[in-house]
Design brief:
- This protein has eight helices and six strands; from the N terminus they run ααββαααββαββαα.
- α3 packs antiparallel against α5 and α7 packs antiparallel against α8.
- The radius of gyration is 24 Å and the shape is flat.
- The longest helix has 36 residues.
- It has a two-stranded antiparallel sheet with strand order 1-2.
- With 275 residues, the chain is mostly helical.
- 71% of the residues lie in helices and 7% in strands.
- It folds into two domains: 35 residues; 225 residues, no CATH class.
């Protein structure tokens, strides 16, 4: 390893570790000064729990999808052809596997850090209590909008991020292996394994889009309707609610078509779903 790189690693770690450590120590002293150390510890536990669970689930999902797609990479791949005194960069199957694992871990870490900031959303959801009053439009307990809906929204967004990243990474791996290609004469060429794998991922993507449309309906009661009103307006009730249900049905149909593609030898169902 070059000496310059050896010098840069501690500097990089210094910038990554010291600022959060200083902030954590400052908050520890502040909460201790106001005699709220127990609350601070509870906050840290919630952040660590939420972030850790999301990191683990996201890593396993990304690792599984990347590894499944990278199995088709059997030949060395020229990542950079080089030139002059610069040597070409060629990756073999083992190096691709290590690269996929590293990328999965890095992406999962980012999602885990994001999720740890939603610790209060998790605590409110896990300790939710009914209010005993329902809204006049959808007849849900008011606690659903305060505790449950925000948690469902965060969970759906995190799951959507994992699925989209899995789709991007798996597609790239299949392109590298040649299992997925675009031929000028034959059009889109998709191997059986790639079709099955990507078809199921796209089906999961549409299911999450359907879940998002389903959550958009009650979310109308918690979002501003113009500059003066807060909640569902007449236009929301008459037009947007039916529109969300239509989008829900379309997304479910697209999910079914995408899943059907995984078990057929034709690309038409998933093309119809995406189109």
């Amino acid at each position: 390893m070059p000496a310059r790189l050896i010098f840069l690693l501690p500097v990089l770690l210094l910038f990554l570790v010291v600022p959060p450590a200083v902030r954590l120590l400052t908050e520890w002293f502040w909460f201790g000064e106001v005699d709220y150390t127990g609350i601070f510890i509870q906050t840290l536990k919630a952040k660590a729990s939420v972030g850790g669970v999301v990191f683990l689930v996201a890593f396993l999902a990304l690792f599984f999808n990347f590894r499944l797609a990278l199995r088709r990479v059997t030949q060395p791949f020229v990542l950079f052809p080089g030139g002059g005194d610069i040597k070409p960069v060629v990756l073999n199957q083992r190096q691709f596997a290590l690269l996929g694992t590293g990328i999965a871990a890095l992406l999962a870490l980012v999602l885990g850090i994001f999720a740890s900031n939603e610790w209060l959303t998790w605590l409110k959801y896990s300790n939710a209590e009914p209010f005993g009053q329902t809204d006049p439009l959808f007849f849900r307990d008011v606690s659903f909008y305060i505790f449950t809906l925000p948690f469902y929204t965060v969970a759906r967004n995190l799951a959507l991020a994992v699925v989209v990243l899995s789709l991007i990474g798996s597609t790239a791996a299949y392109v590298v292996s040649g299992t997925l290609a675009l031929d000028p004469g034959r059009g889109l060429i998709v191997g059986a394994e790639a079709r099955r794998h990507l078809g199921l991922i796209v089906a999961g993507l549409f299911l999450l889009l359907a879940w998002g449309a389903f959550l958009d309906v009650p979310r109308l009661l918690t979002t501003p309707a113009g500059n003066l009103l807060h909640g569902a307006s007449y236009v929301d009730v008459v037009l947007r609610v039916p529109m969300f249900y239509v989008l829900l049905g379309v997304a479910l149909l697209s999910a079914a078509l995408s899943a059907a593609t995984a078990f057929t030898s034709r690309n038409a169902p998933i093309i119809a779903a995406v189109g």
